[in-house]
UniProtKB/TrEMBL annotation:
It comes from the Bacteria. InterPro entries: Homeodomain-like_sf, Transposase_8, Transposase_8_domain. This is Transposase.
Length: 162
């Protein structure tokens, strides 16, 4: 994050001067800032004390640090719920965060985090299908299904209906 050339006291003091009755254009000229900067400061720091602004800055720095931690924790994109569960668990254990805060940080719904992982019933079938696809790369899924049915791994849809 870019370091500001203004201190927090100065940033908080500028909107207070405007509240005291000074014109915005004169105020911006006096401090050497643009109108847009003034309005950004007023929307962000308007009505704050210096201690509140420091606390806000500390929270923003902590948030950035945690985002870097989550991004740096995984070398690939964390996309599946199982991967997100692992990252949430690590954040809770290593940084002593609450479940709510860790889930919000990672972007995982708390119900998804709490839901027990269902057992994978078709693991053997999928594994065998991968092996067959590796041996016969030109076969599509319908032909692989026929091979699996011959091996007795799966049953036909017609046999299930009867």
């Amino acid at each position: 994050m870019k370091k500001s050339r203004f201190s927090e006291e100065q940033i908080i003091g500028v909107p207070k001067e405007a509240d005291a009755g000074m014109k915005v254009a004169d105020l911006c000229r006096k401090h050497g800032i643009s109108d847009a900067t003034f309005y950004n400061w007023r929307s962000r720091y308007g009505g704050m004390d210096i201690s509140e602004a420091r606390r806000l800055r500390q929270l923003e720095e902590e948030n950035q640090r945690l985002k870097r931690l989550v991004e740096g924790r995984s070398w690939k994109k964390v996309s599946s719920p199982a991967q997100r569960r692992e990252v949430v668990q690590q954040v809770i254990e290593q940084h002593d965060y609450s479940e709510r805060r860790a889930c919000a940080l990672v972007g995982l719904n708390r119900r998804t985090f709490r839901r027990p992982v269902s057992p994978d019933a078709d693991h053997e079938v999928r594994q065998r299908m991968r092996e067959l696809a590796q041996d016969r790369p030109r076969f599509g899924s319908p032909r692989l299904h026929v091979l699996l049915r011959r091996e007795g791994q799966v049953t036909s849809d017609l046999e299930d209906a009867e």
